[in-house]
Amino acid sequence: MPDRLIENEGRVLRVNGQRFHAVWLADNAPSSQRTPALAAPLNNIRLLTANLVGDSVALTFAPDSTPLSFSLKWLKDHVYDTPKERSEGHMPAGSTPWGSTIKAAMPTAPFPTLKAYEATQLSWLDAIRSYGLAKVTETAGPVHEIIEIFTPAECAVTSNGNDSRAPELSLEIITCAKDEEESTVHLSDGFACAIRLKNEDPEGFAALAHHSASFVFADQTGRPFTARAPLVSLLPEGTIAAIHFAPQSAAPLTDVPFEQMEVYYRAYRHFSELVDSPEMQISVTLKEGEALVIENTRILRGTTDSHTAQRTFADRNSLLASLTALETTP
User: Fold this and answer.
1) Which helix (H) or strand (E) segment is 26 a member of?
2) Which residue has the higher pLDDT, 20 or 144?
């Protein structure tokens, strides 16, 4: 019965076994129906009626009987009343950790096919979301043509060196350096390395996650750029959000307490060894007409890498937006 959908004196809606707060529903209503939930006292926002109408639920809210309607599918897609992984240091949803075995199954697409077919774009972009990298072959034009698959080319930034700003540009496109027949890069999954460190040295993992490292970089004009971030950045829920590991740009540590400094360096060395270890690292050789797209805040270049390849940076959010658009296309 409709009344059974309403619980806790109108503060909660229960539908299909999932609960939603009235204030959350008011705040997430379609823009054309939205009630200023955050502008009203919390106790004033409550459900008066709730009725299932086809594939939607029709609601009215106190204090002025405001009507709202929600698709049941939309509610299912945005449910939050479920147990979720909240341990410190876990993979993001939709991401898969990898080691050296991924080299034999590298996600790859020829550029002409990638450009022509949405199905190819979908699987290729999904591989980047899952593994943090994917390869492109048979390119003939500039790297910006690859970027245009998922973002406006004018948003790209090209670099040949180590740039402390690069982690903020979260997608990197690596191509063969000019005047060279091929370029080799060594890559590791920073998220997988962090999880392995957590399993092997929980105390050290906590030190890297809870204290900021410092980075400094001078561009070609000599201007200094600085940054501060933990080597392992976590969301409040414990999800690994980014890895900031750039030994070539490291500045003296000043945010690590005296009592934790040796623990920090022990973990830092262990993490560095994991990044370069044979079981965690792959080498990828790029020839002319080939490119590798990687998540710059997840995939790490080996510390022994010569960094001779051409590097262009773009925005991961644009890639994810393009992927979502393809996934929701009828």
Assistant:
1) helix 22-27
2) 20
